Structure formats: C-alpha cells, structure tokens
Amino acid sequence: MTRAHLPGILAMAAIVVASNILVQFLFGQWLTWGAFTYPLAFLVTDVMNRVYGAGPARRVVFVGFIVGLVCSLIGTQIMGEFGPLVTLRIALGSGIAFLTAQLLDVAIFSALRDGRWWRAPLASTLIGSTVDTALFFTIAFSASLVFIEPANDVSWAGEVLPILGLGPVAPLWVSLAVADWMVKLSLALLALVPFRMITTRLTAAA
Asked: Which of 22-52 are b and which e, b meaning 16 or more Cβ less than 10 Å from the residue's Cβ?
C-alpha cells in the first residue's frame, strides 16, 4: 500500500461510515438514505482495480470491512426506540455481504479487465450488488435464519405484502431487498461516467 492508494482508502472509509449513519433515516416506504451512498463502494473498488490492480483493490476492501465492523460495534451500543441500532443479525449480514460482494467484484473485474472499458466495472458491479443485496437481507431478516439471534424479533419483516405494493405477495423484507437492488443497479449504470473520468485522469497522471 502506497500514498497513491490513500485517496481510495479514505473514500471507502467515508462511504462505509456515511452509509452506516444514513441507513437510520428512511427515504420513502422501501428505502433508507444509505441505499444511495453504499453502492459507491463498488465505484471505489473498481477505480482502484483499474488504476492500481487487484491487490490494492482488495486491501481497500478489507479497510472498508474493518471500518464497517467498527461501525457495527458502535451501533450495538446505541439504543434506539426499539433496541440497539445494530443487532447481531444486521452486523453479520452487513459484514458478510460487504466482504463477499466486494471480493467477488474484484475477481470479476480482474477477469474482464482486458475487454471494453465499461464491461469490467458494469459486470462486476451488477453481479456484486446482486450478491450483496441477497446476502444482507436474507441474513438480517429471513425467518428461516431466526436461530442466529432468537431474542431479536424480526417478525415485522415477515409481514406478507405485495412486492413494492404492486407485485405478488412476499415477506416485507423481500420488497426492501428489491428496492435496494434496483437502486444499486441504477447507480451501477450512472457510475460508469465518473469511473471513466476518474480512471482516465489517474492513468494519465501516473
């Protein structure tokens, strides 16, 4: 890790901290404000991978993972209206989802890095984001995993409703996951613009 990697490290840390704070604030019926900041972690990972390679990208991911663990630990000590802001299931889901999805992103990007400039960041982010969403919401809220934290009542997440108020019925957490996933996919497309601009500038300056 060199001084050139420091902006990526700081950016990843800032995104993780901001997302852990903003996830406490609702945006509409299905989302939190954190849903709009967290996907930027994939942009940071992909920029690091393109400019510096897979090794530095993975190290930035591990920094983000450690910062996330610290945020979760702090969150378990802060009491909200219904208990700790961060429960064991949320902490596990967040950590496992982040590390798995980000490392998968690095691997996919590396495999596709020699193709068209947009192919690697788009494919790696789309697949990584999908895995991230599936892992987090399943671990944090699925009734089938209640044994992870029996004392944590997540029955509210199992309320059966039409998906996003429109589709077939499913547990509430599925609607939350679908809404989150849609935001991630949208931002994956939009992030191609800053990805191209940042990598072009950093590559030229190297």
From this structure: bbeeeeeebbbbbbbbbbbbbbbbbbbbbbb
